[in-house]
Amino acid sequence: MKKLLIGNQAVAMGLYHGGLGLASSYPGTPSTEITEFLAMNDDIHTEWAPNEKVAMEVAFGASLAGMRSTCAMKHVGLNVAADPLFTLSYTGVNGGMVICVADDPAMHSSQNEQDSRHYAIAAKVPMLEPADSAEAYAFAKSAFALSEKYDTPVLLRMCTRIAHSQSIVELGEREAVEVKPYEKNPGKYIMMPGNAKKRHPVVEERTAALAEMANDCIYNTVEMAADNKIGIITSGTSYLYVKEVMGEKASILKIGMPNPLPGKLIRDFAAKVEKLYVIEELDPVIESYVRSLGIEVVGKELFSPIGEFSQQTIAAAFGLPSPASIAADSAVPGRPPMMCAGCPHRGLFYTLAKNKITVLGDIGCYTLGAVPPLNALDSTLCMGASVSGLHGFNKARGEEAEGKTVAVIGDSTFMHSGMTGLVNVAYNATNSTVIILDNSITGMTGHQQNPTTGYNIKGDPAAKVDLEALCRALGIARVRVVDPYDLKACETAVKEELAAKEPSVIISRRPCVLLKTVKAKPALVIDPEKCKSCKRCMSLGCPAISMHGGKARIDATLCVGCGVCKQLCAFDAIGE
Hints:
six-stranded parallel sheet; alpha/beta; 17% strand; 20 helices; 35% helix; globular; single chain
């Protein structure tokens, strides 16, 4: 059966048809849909974990028990899960285990560009990299057998373009895979130093065996052109660009298994061409390996290590015209990202900006509080860093910072990695105020449930974390809840907690306005006769408000009637 699938759905189908029994993940664009598609299958266990480290450890536990398992995350999520990854390389697996990681070249929704191939090399585990949805399905399905044959977790590397673009996939059937027996094996699975020392040689032997296998496998393929003038080694989405631009003008070695790389295959291919190029997005991983073999190659001196490639990139590098199928660039007006009309975070950020508070931010849709006109954030580093960073900032600047600095963090991010930072605030005693922006969902990645919502990945009722009780249990005595639509209450809470001489938490609670359960109120309107063109309502940065003919106007198709702008108007020009 043939279907048109996005890459992430193809991965999910491949994993499922490969005998998957358990999936545990934390949402992160561009990987999120893998787990969402898996959750549609009721005959396997699928879950959202609090963070990527937990997800990988859950997948390991299932593998240890003999079940084929997976976890999925974005590239920065692999940083969080790096601790279990490196030791998993030593323990190996029982049931096959596939770790899906999605890189984000050009940083469409990420705080850095990161090449996950380095993790595969450093952890000494095999990595597969599909170039389209068909390969995503085939590679994911076969990865379990590869994992079990070589006793190793397998990394499956996606990228934004492959994850979210569509192509035709020939689907097979789900394999009936029995759960393997579990046998106690301390020397293999208990990684204390005496056992780990014995496992390291096993890892090196496995890597050598995989490298030999890579020379003749389904993942790495050669396409020879009629002449031998140009040879290109490439992988992933770059392969598609190369094919479209070069056609039959170049011979291609497509690397579908970037770790370990096939030394013999590369040498043989290089010997058949006059000039060799390596075209790969981000870091020169393949290029460096080719150079280590003593082979002359053109790589990053021609192709940038920054951002995504395109057909135009490849064509320009070879002095060729762009393919006729590629439309010329047109002047598209810029559309900067912004918080939605009625976003519950807007009122709180307005309050912080108004009072000139230094704000250490975190990862989530509330990071958009950094953009004009609010300009409310001072830093954003990684998941959970706002809380820990606030503690360090206040320790460094003392009374100068206390009473003028806060951290903001979302409910899902707080559960991910903010809790330990709050423990540190309480334990090591700084006069720090942490604001948890509780919008009752994991917002930025597309409305996934989390431990604070009361529902699991399938929407069934689940244990719900009480944030107020949790914060008190972590050592914070001062915990209060405010409605961010109430500007006066927000300002009172912020000023009182910053003035307190002990750690405190403010929970800014109102559900995301885009949730299906949230019903919009009638749109507000502005009386042009009363409007004095002061533009104070514009200071909120609400996309529903604009100026026309010198007067403010509210777009009824966007306004959800939150009433925050009404509280700012000194002339009573805004009403229902």
